Amino acid sequence: MSTTKHLIAPSVLAADFARLYDDVQMVNNSEADWFHIDIMDGVFVPNISFGFPVMQAIAKHAQKPLDVHLMIVDPDRYLKTCKDAGAAVITVHYEACHHLHRTLSAIRELGCKAGVALNPHTPVSLLKDVLADLDLVCIMSVNPGFGGQKFIPQTYTKIKELRELAANVNPALLIEIDGGVGTGNAAALLDAGADVLVAGSSVFGAADPIVAVKELKHIESG
Ligand code: DX5
Ligand code: ZN
Asked: Which residues are involved in binding a divalent metal cation (predicted)?
């Protein structure tokens, strides 16, 4: 069967930063649902992408919600700045938070959806006691920090485990997959229980990014 219930979030990390306006318009004109915004600090991950001023510039032209993935240590320092720069969803890393419950509460108090991202080595079971306080879990299917990496297959098991874990306490939980996603694995990810597909290089690296988004949005699954 064909499903279009899932969401597609092109990752701006793979855009042409010198032509950012054009790439933002491409996402606006496509069937994408969200903009995925990767913020890095060179400490939590071994790379630096762009910061809140650039995100704010994107927000000015974006006609779809900004899904912000904070790959930074001690993210509490920047939650308000992130909201003010236009975030609709704020996702922090499990591995970067000492008081995750407090951080998630702070995100929701700002009026944003609260997300947690898990590195490939972090089991989904560690989220058991905060599942009710979450809107989204981002399962990293590559080690965070860079676009264009190879998808890690253990991700399928993690999606199924999380779907089961959340079934009673938070059935509306959105499961997002980030890293190495494209038409080759999208159907299998949706079958496993994913709701949001982040796609960087498979969209922006495509000959026609609008068509690439369309293909992901109308992927055949089941
Ligand atoms: C990686 C970022 C991803 C990245 C995905 O650390 O979180 O969002 O842009 O890029 P692709 O889709 O190329 O793997
Ligand atoms: Zn990301």
From this structure: 36, 38, 69, 178
